[in-house]
Amino acid sequence: MPGLLRGVARTAVVAGTATAVSNRVSRRQANRWAAQDQQQYDQQQYAQQQQYAPPPQPAPAAPAVPRPKRPTNPFLSQDPEARARRLARALVSDIVVYHPAKRRDGLRDGSLKLLFEEEIRKSWDEYVDQVGKQLADSTTFFTDALNEILADGQPVFP
Fold first, then answer.
1. Which residues of 125-156 are buried (b: 16+ CB within 10 A; e: fewer)?
2. Number of structural domains, the chain?
3. Domain that holds residue 117
């Protein structure tokens, strides 16, 4: 009996560690994608400004006015819906990365919902915490990510 309890305790520790690592990976991926999106957005804005800007006039020398600082984390300045979509995809991608064999079995047997019930619930809770209940409930980003990434394009999750 003590060996069984020790095995259960080890499993709990490993599961907790995997969840912590998964959350860190999700945040890093989301921040990386946000930085890429922000860079593309900045480039587009610059190109548009150059396209519609009149030829520059020589300006009189004036003291430099400091520009307003951009937020440190460009992910926070993005459109909330784009942020929610990226986060949903990152969370579901983490599930796939950490459980490839389980996913393969679920796809083969048609039991993805049952096999990943706990992981989906935890990811949904994290999603709601980060994007807000109202946005999470009013969009299908999380469900779309489940169907596209976890279910390999099949409409398994309503």
1. ebbeebbeeebbeebebbbebbbbbbbeeeeb
2. 1
3. 101-151
Residue 147 lies in a domain: yes
List the alpha helices (DSSP H) in 53-147: 80-98, 100-109, 112-115, 117-131, 133-138, 141-145
pTM for the full predicted model? 0.53
> 87-144 pLDDT, tens per residue?
999 999 999 899 899 989 988 998 888 888 999 999 999 999 988 899 899 999 999 9
| Residue 107 falls inside a structural domain | yes
| pLDDT > 80? residue 4 | no
- Give domain status of residue 18, yes or no: no
Residue 106 backbone phi and psi in degrees, to 5: -65, -40
